[in-house]
Amino acid sequence: TYVVAPAPALRLTTTIEWPHPLIGRQSGSYDITPEAFARDLAPARTFGFVREAEALRARGLAQGADLDSTLILSDDGLVGGELRWPDEFVRHKAGDILGDLALMGGRVEAHIVASKPSHQGNIALARWLRRTGQRIGGVAMDIGRILDVIPHRYPFLLVDRIIEVEGTTRIVGIKNVTINEPFFQGHFPGHPIMPGVLIIEAMAQVGGMLLLGTIEDPDQKVVYFMSLDNVKFRRPVLPGDQLRCELEMLQNRGRTCRMKGVAYVDGNIVAEAEMMARVVDR
Fold this sequence. Notes:
There is one protein chain. About 25% of the residues lie in helices and about 35% in strands. By secondary structure, the protein is of the alpha+beta class. The protein folds into two domains: about 1-45 and about 85-135, 2-Layer Sandwich (lpxc deacetylase, domain 1), CATH 3.30.1700; about 145-280, Hotdog Thioesterase (Thiol Ester Dehydrase, Chain A). The strands form three sheets. Strands 7-8-10-11-12-9 form a six-stranded antiparallel beta sheet, covered by helices on one side. Strands 1-6-2-3 form a four-stranded mixed beta sheet. Helix 3 (about 90-100) runs parallel beside helix 4 (about 120-135). About 30% of the residues are buried.
């Protein structure tokens, strides 16, 4: 999976996992500059397994592979040579992402968090970035990206689009409120009003997108909200309204943060709150 957030320069955070004693689970974050690429990523070699080598050569592939350019792995170790870094494997995968993004033909200013990346996934990411960059007023994250990041699903997914992301400090999300929402059946019959706690929940989910976008392995994490302060409800939210949730990061201490959220309908404030949240493993 991939998560992309705007940033002043390109930064890659990559995580891989293989059931091999030399690989296991590896993660790394890299600020991409020409100097850092040459030092930290370019020397990292591709890797493969002995059991796959003959099949590849029979298909006319891997003809130029040698120990200077390729790490050959047995079931329990390395066949010849030495690792240039203990985490050479994840460094190579980060280099793969960079190489595939180069197909876009332009500079990327973003923090890309990739979990178990592949060439197929990298190319799909590059195409998505290119489409988004060409779209005037395009969304920062569509519903597909949202589903990749937060665990919520129907009937409790309360964010449809992320339309603005400012690094790790601010995010804006949209919830389209329709009469088909299941909570309107009981709140209230003949007088449908969106429950205030669900307005807060919508803000919390947008804030969760911001928080999970700053950490490694977001697909392995979930956000627990710890407290709510200064909660105020200003106006009712009705079927047909579009709820705009703006979240600002007030304080971020690793896995714990404090955010201020304001929800609007047609430019009018409908609710606001300060929230404290923590990221935990699923």
